[in-house]
Design a protein that fits this description.
The chain is an alpha/beta fold. Helices cover 35% and strands 19% of the residues.
Length: 308
């Protein structure tokens, strides 16, 4: 039997739930962050450059504004590494790490995106020498900030770590450093979700790579992506396929090496990849905003359906 008071309670309960799930991505802020991170002023965000430090400060201030917790002083995890290509040691590269507790689990979802790029280099035919890295990977970094904002208002079941990583372009150094100095036992990591190049694709396709190794994730992602654009594709994760296998192509690689489950969201290479023309003007805004919404829906589904 349902009493009038119970009906009123149920109405407001479901209204509360609906309002919570109605919150989504702030598209204007998402695009603004991408534009800021890929501006000429940041000179391509090469590790330890002034532009890289400006990008880091923006991410740090956003984590503070959102109200994320952290296990590192002022959200910053410093590390050093040898860049064999340049025969140079890099001191005090910095990952920016935020954290949200979960409602009902100790198993952590680690969401990553690298904020560094390759800096200033050879001029193209237009005389442009700034490798802005709008798609690679200001797009993933802006998405990371948007996801942190969403989950700060919609607490997940699992704790989520938001990691803006440095040194990816020099051998996935930020991801390696994060796992080497992780603030919890690595066994506490449920999975890694990595985003790298998610703002453009001529075929309206976004890939979720990794389900070859973790087939239990595929039906969750398929269900979450039904009738949504961009089209979620699977693949680029078969062994012995050379460059077609993306398993070690970005910051999810070190997680894979530690036998930690991962999904990598990204697009296939385009003509502006690692070129000065990878600029904000060449992204596809509708593709990007829809891709981030799709990734959000996938993460919500994984958070709800994976073991606690």
């Amino acid at each position: 039997m349902v009493t009038p008071s119970m009906s009123i309670f149920s109405f407001f309960f479901f209204l509360f739930i609906s309002v919570g799930f109605a919150q989504s991505i702030d598209e204007k802020k998402l695009l603004s962050d991408l534009k800021l991170l890929s501006a000429d002023e940041l000179k391509g965000r090469k590790t330890l450059s002034e532009g890289n430090k400006k990008a880091r400060k923006h991410i740090q201030s956003e984590f503070q504004r959102i109200g994320l917790k952290t296990q590192y002083a002022e959200y910053l995890q410093s590390f050093s590494f040898e860049n064999q290509r340049e025969n140079k040691r890099y001191e005090d590269a910095v990952n920016v790490i935020g954290f949200l507790p979960g409602l009902d689990s100790r198993k952590i979802i680690v969401i990553t995106a690298h904020y560094d790029h390759v800096g200033v280099g050879k001029k193209n035919s237009k005389g442009d020498s700034i490798y802005n890295g709008a798609d690679d990977n200001a797009s993933g970094t802006a998405a990371l900030l948007a996801l942190a904002e969403y989950f700060s208002k919609n607490q997940p079941q699992h704790p989520i770590m938001f990691a803006a990583l440095d040194g990816e372009e020099m051998g996935l150094q930020g991801a390696k450093a994060l796992l080497k100095d992780f603030p919890f036992p690595l066994d506490n990591i449920l999975m890694n979700i990595n985003m790298d190049m998610i703002s453009r694709n001529e075929n309206d396709e976004l890939y979720a790579s990794g389900t070859h190794y973790y087939p239990e994730l595929k039906p969750i992602l398929e269900q979450a992506s039904v009738s949504l654009l961009p089209n979620l594709r699977f693949g680029h994760d078969l062994p012995n396929t050379g460059r077609e296998n993306w398993t070690q192509s970005s910051d999810h690689g070190p997680f894979f090496d530690e036998k930690i489950m991962h999904i990598y969201f990204g697009v296939e290479d385009h003509e502006d990849y690692h070129q000065p023309s990878d600029e904000f003007e060449n992204i596809k805004p509708s593709f990007f905003t829809n891709a981030v919404k799709l990734i959000l829906k996938c993460i919500v589904a994984l958070d709800q359906k994976l073991p606690k």
